[in-house]
Amino acid sequence: MSDFREALESISKSPCSKHPGFSAALACIRCGTFICAFCASSSGGLCFRCLHAAPELATRRARLAASLVDGVALLLPSLLLGVLRCLALPDEAAMTAPAVYVPALLVLLVQASLIRGAGASLGKRLLGIRVVRRDGRPAEVWRIALLRNALPIALCGYCGWFSLVDALFIVGEDRRCLHDWLAGTRVVKAPRSPRSFAARLVTG
């Protein structure tokens, strides 16, 4: 107990590395640098240096697998509903009915909620990766939805070669597709989160 008390006293007498006028409340959970209570509450227990350290880039296989999961999650519910409508109403154009697209809309709303919370869609969460801005800060929902998704889809409709060019950009050292450059984002491994079975299967 005495060693523990001495450690606490040593921390309380040390200044914060970012706010020298404040006493330290605890040590950074990553590097051990002393930080004050404000830093601890606003940065999740990390010092300023560790908070803004460059995260590890997501692997290309993980990004591909996440895209496939998101695609299946978006298309499969509507496809199943369309098939059921075809079986129940064989004489109607069931696949073109507006109701078929309701599940896809619900999936998009769920995806937007997931992205807002952690910057990661369903597929990216399963693979343990997320989208951040180029400087490492969290990416806004509008940036991901409009610049990373809606704009590339619109460009694909205008020029069919865009999807191929977009995908080929990932072979670069930054592992950023063309839509990442357009949105000012990159895909990194999610910090301090246990990897799912899907992530371990794809990334090893």
UniProtKB/TrEMBL annotation:
Residues that span the membrane, as ranges: 21-44, 64-87, 99-118
Entry-linked SUPFAM superfamilies: B-box zinc-binding domain
Keywords: Cell membrane, Membrane, Transmembrane, Transmembrane helix
Main location: membrane
One GO term describing the cellular component: plasma membrane
RDD domain location: 58-184
Membrane topology value: Multi-pass membrane protein
Presence of keyword Protease: no
One Pfam short name: RDD
Location relative to the cell: Cell membrane
Listed PANTHER family: PROLINE-RICH ANTIGEN HOMOLOG-RELATED (PTHR36115)
Name by which UniProt lists this protein: RDD family protein
